[in-house]
Amino acid sequence: MARFYPCKTISPGNAQGEAVISSEEILFYFTDPATGRITEHGHCLEGQSIAGKILVFPGGKGSSVVQADGLYKLEQSGMQPAGLIVQNLDTVLVSAAVIMEIPMVCEVPDSLCLALENGMTVKINTDENTIELPD
Asked: Which of 24, 82, 98, 110 could form a disulfide with 15 if both were Cys (CB 3.0 to 4.6 A apart)?
């Protein structure tokens, strides 16, 4: 039986994918558009692909131009994340997710953070404001 957690919808849509959890903010400019891999030296996800994944992270960083451009390049090559679970919102990240139609949610309970593991299949359902994890 699946476990469901409440969330707040920021950018509508439904998504499913493997969880990739970052303890650090992400600057999408430091991703490889051809592979979706994080290229920022020293980042906790350096070398890992976020393409088609449910990205769980504190928030974005960097100036508005490079942040939006990085996510746009990922989207243009089909290497964008399937969905975003974010702790701290910023206007650039929200705008980019809405424009690029990437489902984004926030305000998740601590119990979700404790239950969530890298590689776990995650479903975001913004129609019902839920995040589903397998049991």
From this structure: 82
